[in-house]
Amino acid sequence: MRVRAAVLADYGRLGLEELDLDDPGPGEVCVRLAAAGVCHSDYHVYTGDLPLPVPMVLGHEGAGRVQAVGPGVSALRPGDPVVLSWLPACGRCGPCLRGRPELCRVAALAGEHGTLPGGRTPFRRPSGEPVHQFSLTGAFAECTVVPEAGAVRLPEGADLASAALLSCGVLTGTGAVWRTAGVRPGESVAVFGAGGVGCSALQAARMVSAYPRIAVDVHPRRLEAAAACGATHLVLAGPGGPLERVLDLTGGEGVDAAFEAIGRPETIAQAFNATRPGGRAVVIGVAPPHLDVSLNAFAFPSQEKRLLGCWYGESSPARDIPALLRLQEAGALDVRSLLSRRYALDEVGEAFAAMLSGAVTRALIAFAS
């Protein structure tokens, strides 16, 4: 099959290409995309901050319909609406057996190589040159091939545009609050970075009645979105940093739980320093792997502060995506409000620019039906 895709030919060089897409192999499904979210992680690959192999089809947050299934696929059929999961757990490695599918070693190794499990990439140029796929997904393409575990069935009639955001941003932000931090009613939270992930974390904090819910960002437009997603206090971060303002809002003590949804050493340190003694700071944002964070070592034992990592919201997509859909149906979770603007596939560069400028909470690539 010949498909159009946004291909990162080399770091900093992204363009639309026509690629050949293999038929799904054993345990794989072909999905025709309806929508794909644009995430900072995609941009980190574009710049080379995440040094993955190129050429590569970007995109990892998407939803669509199953086009075809490979041998051995039992849970999905052509025509089924699905949301993609960029971390299809194998169910057999050590982390999976310990109940931590988001840390699956098989999926992580395939993601590092830009392939499906087993080392194959389904995309290739007409010349025969293989093209890697980002995060076992490659969602910036009209169609892609993913493992069966990488496609979670949706109810018929589900809105595929908003469902696309469930596959990364919403799943990660809500899981960070509910699972990694275990925020309880009445606890105070601060969220550093009010993009799609941060606004999802704020909605999760609202659903468990955390208070106050402080949003921190450098973009006024994103703070407006944060207020709509449940932030009770807004902090516009300036050159001096937002720490003093966050402390003022909590009587000088700091918050019970802070969430860093940007991926920068300085904001990770700010989130940690904004927590009270005995509090916890959760790092959600993906920083370039060569960067380090500088923190005061004495604060760990003397104040019993905790710094926690969060990968994919500690989620199990097959379990958690249907739960999020139920919350959306009940009106408790508003995914549609995160969708700021839709772009065509050949406008990915414009979507990146809007994301970086703070003009959007989440940009969406909408595919022609």
Report the mean per-residue pLDDT as an integer.
96
The CATH class of the largest domain is identified as Alpha Beta
Strand content: 25-35%
Low-confidence stretches: none
Task: Please write the string of helix (H) and strand (E) elements.
Answer: EEEHEEEHHEEEEHEHEHEHEHEHEHEHE
Q: In angstroms, what is the radius of gyration?
A: 20 Å
Q: Based on Cα principal axes, name the global outline.
A: globular
CATH superfamily of the largest domain: Medium-chain alcohol dehydrogenases, catalytic domain
Layout of strands and helices, then pairs:
Elements (H helix, E strand, L loop, with lengths): L1 E9 L2 E9 L6 E11 L1 H8 L8 E2 L3 E9 L11 E4 L9 H4 L7 H9 L9 E2 L5 E4 L9 E5 L3 E3 L6 H21 L8 E4 L3 H12 L5 E5 L2 H9 L4 E4 L6 H7 L5 E6 L4 H9 L1 E9 L15 H5 L2 E4 L7 H13 L9 E5 L4 H10 L4 E5 L3
Parallel strand pairs: 4-8, 11-12, 11-14, 12-13, 14-15, 15-16, 17-18
Antiparallel strand pairs: 1-2, 1-4, 2-7, 3-5, 3-9, 3-18, 5-6, 6-10, 7-8
Helix pairs in contact: 4-5, 4-10
Structure description:
This protein has 369 residues and is an alpha/beta fold. The chain folds into two domains: 2-158 and 335-366, Quinone Oxidoreductase, Chain A, domain 1 (Alpha-Beta Complex); 169-311, Rossmann fold, CATH 3.40.50.720. It contains eleven helices and 18 strands. The protein has helices spanning 40-47, 94-97, 105-113, 160-180, 196-207, 220-228, 243-249, 265-273, 299-303, 317-329, 348-357, and strands at residues 2-10, 13-21, 28-38, 56-57, 61-69, 81-84, 123-124, 130-133, 143-147, 151-153, 189-192, 213-217, 233-236, 255-260, 275-283, 306-309, 339-343, 362-366. The strands form three sheets. Strands 3, 5, 6, 9, 10, 17 and 18 form a seven-stranded mixed sheet that branches. A six-stranded parallel sheet has the order 13-12-11-14-15-16, with helices on both faces. A five-stranded mixed barrel has the order 1-2-7-8-4. Helix 8 links the parallel strand 14 (255-260) and strand 15 (275-283).
